[in-house]
Backbone:
């Protein structure tokens, strides 16, 4: 008697499974013409979902005839929804009157045209600039409306590749910080050969439980062997050590007790500046014409006048500094070592000193663990030239280093230095800590002479 209920339940499950499978078996036995006729009444979301059922329905749901009808019907409904065909594509389509198109051709054409239509509709919002930062004020909204996300592909030295979705994504005023922890699957960084950052455009489909289709665009490739020797430690706490691979890219490495070889990756963090972020993430970057320098009566030889600078510091969640400086210039005496120096805050002018709105730190999280590296933050710099064009834009995690010698005797607290340097320029910020708040007492931005020549088409 004790086993009878189990037998009844088992038979009920068997019956339910047969009832569940019978409609699918019945559909598979229908002629292909009938199946295609049934599928012709489905929308894009339903076809995409059906393509995940089995091999037969994958082939049927990707049929060129179905997708050609969908594409042309949508084209008639929206006059602006057109294929941006190149000469080669026009030749290909003319041959298709005789021979069959490639597999999935019309599906890809339709999905790509949807992406282009959305991009065209949203790009007009990027023309509205923030007067404070000089950047498009709706970058965050446009990215979300276009359903842009980012993926990180990690390749190891054995040739194996793994692609990860961001663990978190945090927007600030002029930059966005992205972090990948990989669910504990990130390998030893000494075994990683390269990192690939892709921007991904998702298409708005109603497909619960499935990843929506989209297009991937390579934004950045990092050769680990090339940058390994130049890695800098920019901060640490009890659990992780932050290693700066190159400007904008940080590795969080687990700190192992009683081990000199600490190379197990906890997370990878990218900082992306807002300048042309939408275009870079969707491969819509316009070409920039070379401009001639403006005539300047004060310094006609170098023309470094009328510059505007916006500098922001954040902890990946909120801005602790957001300052705008206008009418910056560079005298001939300040040009040296291949750099043109623009000073925004002077140590001798106390009225220019700026207080930070919060504490300095870089919070991090990895699965169930989290922490805060106290001696680090994210720096974002936007330099605009006298043409109101973006001249130099930087977004990167930086170290806040304690200095033994005072840089400003008007304050009694400890003195710190934030230094960022790359091939195009240098940012030097000096701070003093008074009780629990930091005060910026000096800020200078130096731009490489070679960058000025490239930007203006000159030969200084």
Residues:
């Amino acid at each position: 008697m004790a086993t009878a209920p189990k037998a009844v339940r088992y038979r009920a499950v068997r019956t339910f499974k047969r009832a569940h499978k019978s409609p699918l078996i019945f559909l598979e036995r229908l002629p292909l013409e009938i199946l295609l006729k049934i599928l012709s009444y489905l929308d894009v979301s339903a076809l995409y979902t059906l393509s995940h059922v089995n091999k037969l329905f994958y082939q049927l749901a990707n049929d060129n005839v179905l997708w050609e009808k969908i594409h042309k019907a949508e084209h008639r409904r929206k006059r602006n929804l057109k294929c941006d065909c190149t000469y080669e594509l026009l030749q290909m389509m003319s041959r298709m009157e005789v021979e069959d198109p490639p597999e999935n051709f019309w599906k890809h054409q339709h999905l790509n045209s949807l992406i282009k239509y959305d991009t065209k509709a949203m790009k007009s919002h990027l023309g509205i600039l923030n007067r404070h930062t000089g950047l498009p004020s709706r970058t965050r909204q446009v990215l979300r409306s276009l359903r842009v996300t980012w993926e990180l592909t990690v390749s190891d030295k054995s040739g194996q590749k793994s692609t990860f979705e961001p663990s978190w994504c945090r927007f600030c005023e002029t930059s966005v910080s992205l972090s990948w922890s990989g669910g504990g699957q990130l390998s030893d960084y000494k075994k990683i050969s390269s990192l690939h950052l892709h921007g991904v455009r998702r298409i708005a489909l109603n497909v619960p439980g499935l990843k929506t289709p989209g297009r991937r665009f390579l934004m950045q490739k990092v050769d680990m062997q090339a940058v390994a020797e130049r890695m800098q430690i920019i901060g640490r706490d009890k659990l992780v050590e932050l290693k700066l691979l190159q400007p904008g890219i940080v590795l969080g490495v687990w700190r192992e007790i009683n081990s000199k070889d600490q190379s197990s990756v906890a997370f990878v963090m990218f900082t992306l500046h807002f300048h042309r972020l939408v275009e870079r993430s969707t491969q819509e970057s316009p070409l920039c014409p070379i401009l001639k320098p403006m005539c300047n009566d004060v310094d006609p030889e170098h023309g470094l006048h009328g510059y505007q600078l916006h500098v922001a510091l954040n902890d990946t969640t909120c801005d602790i500094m957001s300052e705008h400086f206008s009418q910056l210039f560079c005298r001939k005496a300040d040009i040296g070592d291949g750099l043109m120096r623009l000073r925004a805050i002077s140590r001798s002018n106390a009225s220019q000193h700026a207080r930070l709105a919060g504490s300095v730190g870089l919070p991090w999280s990895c699965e169930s663990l989290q922490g805060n590296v106290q001696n680090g933050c994210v720096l974002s710099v936007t330099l605009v030239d006298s043409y109101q064009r973006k001249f130099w834009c930087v977004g990167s995690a930086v170290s806040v280093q304690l200095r033994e010698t005072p840089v400003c005797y008007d304050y009694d607290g400890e003195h710190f230095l934030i230094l960022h340097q790359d091939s195009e320029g240098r940012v030097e910020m000096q701070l003093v800590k008074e009780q629990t708040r930091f005060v910026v007492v000096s800020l200078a931005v130096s731009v490489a002479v070679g960058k000025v020549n490239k930007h203006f088409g000159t030969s200084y």
Q: What stands out?
A: Residues 1-20, 80-98, 286-290 have pLDDT under 50 and may be disordered. The first strand starts at residue 148 and ends at 156. The first helix runs from residue 4 to 28. The two ends are 98 Å apart (CA to CA).
